[in-house]
């Protein structure tokens, strides 16, 4: 519902105002391109601030994605967002995010996934499925709304913020839920990155076992790399491969979520859930990267622009998030994220000790 606006404030709206009030939002061609620029510039500034803030002492452990979400939320809920920025924000939140997920495929090959072996793949897949189901079950006990629970489940079991974004194409959760899920996943992923090397040594894991454990259970790719390479080079390689195998399971998991939502039918989510066809682009890029390939010189640029677009998309979500609504969610979703983190860490460690 639109909020009444004073004449002198007619170009400013709060973060909670609907996109439906944006004039010309459905126009195509030159008009649409012109319409997205103000929002793209704002999103770009927020994104740049996230990257810059990450260079400050003590903040380097955080992804620019989570910093951009926070900055976007602070901006939207203090300064406000101009009417003419809405179209560009929506473009960043939808188009750029989906393109970034497609480009994630360039960070994975079939050979990398196969190198983990049948046992390693089974461990990763079983951990993913068990964690996802556990999180949904725990959400019912804690009274956490299902859409937010699905985002936390996806972020914990698959690959952090990227999985949350992909899962939200099916769940259609509010931007506040996405922001909450990303923040909680980042929190516990950071804890894991710092604590795992100590826990691995206490558990007596060798480098290969530790890398498999870290890759199967820590949330973000960067967090896995940070934790596993602290343990040793062999652990770093094993952790990276295990984590990329989890990333490869993003596509079937999101398709399964979409299929389940559409089959449920009776609920609002089931009625509206689209099939995430852009995930097919992710699969196609993985296959291209595996059997055709790209020049090695291009890879760092692709990785950079993938992260950049993910950060822009999450900055856009922050610009649409209402802080008061996030606070209204309370601590139960945070407790759910903690429970999911403890489960995936413990479950995967038991499997590693039994199978490796």
From TrEMBL:
Primary localisation category: membrane
Pfam families to which the protein is assigned, alphabetical: Cons_hypoth698
Membrane topology, record value: Multi-pass membrane protein
Keywords: Cell membrane, Membrane, Transmembrane, Transmembrane helix
Gene Ontology CC entries for this record: plasma membrane
Location in the cell: Cell membrane
Family annotation (InterPro entries): UPF0324_pro (IPR018383)
Membrane spanning stretches: 35-53, 59-83, 116-136, 148-166, 178-199, 211-232, 244-261, 273-294, 300-322, 334-355
Protein name, UniProt field: Putative integral membrane protein (TIGR00698 family)
Species: Aquamicrobium defluvii
High-level lineage: Bacteria, Pseudomonadati, Pseudomonadota, Alphaproteobacteria, Hyphomicrobiales
């Amino acid at each position: 519902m639109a909020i009444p606006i004073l004449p002198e404030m007619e170009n400013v709206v709060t973060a909670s105002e609907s996109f439906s009030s944006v004039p010309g939002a459905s126009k195509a061609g030159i008009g649409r391109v012109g319409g997205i620029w103000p929002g793209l510039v704002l999103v770009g500034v927020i994104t740049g601030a996230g990257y810059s803030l990450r260079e400050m002492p003590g903040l380097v452990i955080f992804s620019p994605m989570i910093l951009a979400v926070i900055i976007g939320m602070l901006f939207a809920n203090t300064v406000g967002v101009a009417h003419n920025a809405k179209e560009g924000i929506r473009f960043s939140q939808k188009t750029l995010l989906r393109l970034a997920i497609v480009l994630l495929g360039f960070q994975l090959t079939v050979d990398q996934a196969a190198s983990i072996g049948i046992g390693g793949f089974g461990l990763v897949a079983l951990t993913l499925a068990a964690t996802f189901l556990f999180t949904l079950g725990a959400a019912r006990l804690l009274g956490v709304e299902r859409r937010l629970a699905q985002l936390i489940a996806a972020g914990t079991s698959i690959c952090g913020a990227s999985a949350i974004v992909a899962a939200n194409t099916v769940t259609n959760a509010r931007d506040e839920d996405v922001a909450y899920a990303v923040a909680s996943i980042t929190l516990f992923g950071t804890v894991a990155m710092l604590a795992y090397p100590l826990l691995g040594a206490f558990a007596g894991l060798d480098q290969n076992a530790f890398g498999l454990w870290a890759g199967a259970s820590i949330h973000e790719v960067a967090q896995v790399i940070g934790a596993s390479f602290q343990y040793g080079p062999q652990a770093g390689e094993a952790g990276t491969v295990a984590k990329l195998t989890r990333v490869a399971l993003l596509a079937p998991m999101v398709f399964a979520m979409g299929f389940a939502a559409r089959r449920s039918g009776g609920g609002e989510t089931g009625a509206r859930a689209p099939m995430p066809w852009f995930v097919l682009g992710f699969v196609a890029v993985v296959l291209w990267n595996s059997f055709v390939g790209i020049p090695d010189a291009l890879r760092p640029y692709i990785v950079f622009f993938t992260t950049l677009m993910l950060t822009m998309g999450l900055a856009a979500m922050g610009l649409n998030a209402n802080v008061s609504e996030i606070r209204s969610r309370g601590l139960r979703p945070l407790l759910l994220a903690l429970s999911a983190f403890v489960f995936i860490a413990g479950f995967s460690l038991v499997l590693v000790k039994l199978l490796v």
